[in-house]
Amino acid sequence: MHIPKHLAIIMDGNGRWARNRQLPRLAGHARGVETVRTVVQECARLGVEYLTLYAFSSENWRRPGDEVSGLMSLLAAFLRSELASMQEYGIRLSAIGDLALLPEQSRRVLQETMEATASNDKMVLNLALSYGGRDEIIRAMASIGKKIETAQLSSLQIDEALICDHLDTRSLPDPDLLIRTSGEMRISNFLLWQIAYSELVFTDVLWPDFGVEELHRAIEEFSLRERRFGLTGDQLQTPET
Ligand code: IPE
Ligand code: IPE
Ligand code: MG
């Protein structure tokens, strides 16, 4: 099995999982957190170097207030309860998104956990929180624009590497594999720039039901793909020297 260096996951289907059981949506989110634990530990075990989880989108702010505050509380509780296991597995926490919008308490525990795990080097667990791909690109463009205005940069210096350096993901490689659960076949504003050549795997399994077996199945599917990056299949067989 070829393990992706960077795995990104759109964790979807918590609400439907709860509705199928006549439970409140938050019960689905709570079960979703259990899946996060399982997947994070299995990825660390498999040797995934970067795991990015789409936990809360810039559009998710428009959900009912009690769901939003429930999700923020779950996030803080998850970070507190997982610190010991992140240390044990050598996991460094990072985050992307417009973190300034997070409630004070969640932001604080996020910051503390990132600092506490800063020297771990086995796997990066990167949480996309208050994250939108377009919002990220807007913030990157604004920051480049400001540097041009103040003559720290010239527009002639704009290239792919410069844009990458201004995105929230500046310290991460592009995802090799993107998994979305729950049967939806869309990207929902996740990592728009970064997934240009990622392999996509969609599964009907709802996130609370996703487990080690489904994770292995997705990685096996990824292992069978030929990533051509615009080249021909023959070129990949006999790389030009
Ligand atoms: C994913 O589950 C979690 C978040 C978006 C925060 P959903 O809450 O979107 O679940 P469905 O799509 O309603 O089933
Ligand atoms: C995407 O799921 C966001 C997260 C998983 C955090 P959504 O449930 O918000 O996406 P849509 O609305 O179905 O596209
Ligand atoms: Mg959803």
Number of helix segments?
A: 8
N-to-C CA distance: 28 Å
Unreliable spans: none
Structure ligands:
3-methylbut-3-enyl trihydrogen diphosphate, magnesium ion
CATH class: Alpha Beta
- The CATH architecture term is 3-Layer(aba) Sandwich
Order of helices and strands: EHHEHEHEHHEEHH
List the helices and strands and how they pair.
Elements: E1 6-10, H1 14-20, H2 25-46, E2 50-57, H3 65-89, E3 91-96, H4 104-116, E4 123-131, H5 133-149, H6 160-166, E5 177-180, E6 199-202, H7 212-224, H8 233-237
Parallel strand pairs: 1-2, 1-5, 2-4, 3-4, 5-6
Bound molecules: 3-methylbut-3-enyl trihydrogen diphosphate (2 copies) and magnesium ion.
One 3-methylbut-3-enyl trihydrogen diphosphate is lined by residues 11-16, 56, 60, 71, 182.
